[in-house]
């Protein structure tokens, strides 16, 4: 499958700030910028910066960023699911995972998560993908937001809906281990019924289908 990437840019003005939202960007482009020290959700900022540069240069990899001048203050990653997760079963070339979305603590409440998702879906290529995201409460910033897991879940689902993602059921043990966890997905307009059937079989691994 050929992965075409069309660059888009959006200038976001809010609270006297001018934030540039753009992508997909390459690893070389990312290297021209700095990486905000408030991006700490997954690993130390230098390590996470290296990780997204590597993802950017994967054939299927897509990195959408938001930046304040030359400082990256948010990012979204799209790539094939981790080989150790059930979502990689069958090596479906049309199944992409929204692996991470993060905005620096210093830039929260500006609507940047939604804007990155909206820009991600402007590319016509996404109509050839099923894009999934697995939401686990242990990845959420409950400490700084002071929200409980179910209020945070509502916020996450509303944000993902800005990119056209909806909740899908699954029997995946990690997701069913807690009621705040969920699977969300966006089905591209050119996805066939056969491809949807393949996705359904992964969602309900080991379940009998009529």
TrEMBL record:
Pfam families noted in UniProt: Acetyltransf_1
Any one GO MF annotation of this record: acyltransferase activity, transferring groups other than amino-acyl groups
Gene Ontology biological process: acetoin catabolic process
Domain N-acetyltransferase stretches: 45-119
InterPro entries: AcuA, Acyl_CoA_acyltransferase, GNAT_dom
Superkingdom classification of source: Bacteria
Protein name as it appears in the record: GNAT family N-acetyltransferase
Source species of the chain: Macrococcus equipercicus
